[in-house]
């Protein structure tokens, strides 16, 4: 035991607790913590240090999506085709879509009210763009309500013939 303490004693460690007699140390080295914290969010969709898990909607998700809509005061039925986003196992976003002959059309993007402006909607649309490329579609189209046009403009959509907006995929 003393060899381990001597080994770790030479490195800078962070205290885990500042309560007087509870001198608990976090034996992860500063450099490791700082390097991990910097790179963890660059490995994919990350919201406040938690990884956002995005996957296609399955038939078994209908009840979860209904509960999510009820809790967040959103009217409507779960989409038949789309993506769901989960954060720490909880459903936080739903994107409904339709696949057309030459494009993918977004019908709705809904993010839990308390998690808006945390890049979740952006990650959902980016994941849809990856999916669209895989199925050989060269653009994503959306007919957004007037209050969400700025959001779609910020994530790469351009005005097309009103009221449509288009994001071309390279």
For the structure shown, list the relevant keywords.
170 residues; Aminopeptidase; single chain; alpha+beta; eight-stranded mixed beta sheet
What would your notes on this structure say?
By secondary structure, this protein is an alpha+beta fold. It folds into two domains: 2-43, no CATH class; 46-168, Gcn5-related N-acetyltransferase (GNAT) (Aminopeptidase). It has helices spanning 2-9, 30-40, 62-71, 120-134, 149-154, and strands spanning 13-15, 25-29, 46-47, 50-56, 82-87, 90-99, 104-111, 139-142, 158-159, 165-168. It has an eight-stranded mixed beta sheet with strand order 3-4-5-6-7-8-10-9, with helices on both faces. It has a two-stranded antiparallel sheet with strand order 1-2. The radius of gyration is 22 Å and the shape is globular.
């Amino acid at each position: 035991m003393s060899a381990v303490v001597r080994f770790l004693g030479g490195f800078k460690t962070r205290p885990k607790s500042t309560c007087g007699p509870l001198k608990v140390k976090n034996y992860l080295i500063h450099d490791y913590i700082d390097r991990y914290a910097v790179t963890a969010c660059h490995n994919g969709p990350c919201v406040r240090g938690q990884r956002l898990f995005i996957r296609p909607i399955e038939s078994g998700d209908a009840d979860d999506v209904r509960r999510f809509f009820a809790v967040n005061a959103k009217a409507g039925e779960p989409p038949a085709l789309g993506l769901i986003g989960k954060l720490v196992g909880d459903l936080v976003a739903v994107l409904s879509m339709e696949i057309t002959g030459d494009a993918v059309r977004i019908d709705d993007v809904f993010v839990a009210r308390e998690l808006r402006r945390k890049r979740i909607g952006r990650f959902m649309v980016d994941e849809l763009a990856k999916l669209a490329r895989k199925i050989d579609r060269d653009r994503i189209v959306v007919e957004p309500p007037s209050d969400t046009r700025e959001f779609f403009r910020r994530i790469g959509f351009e005005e097309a013939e009103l009221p449509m907006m288009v994001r071309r995929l390279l």
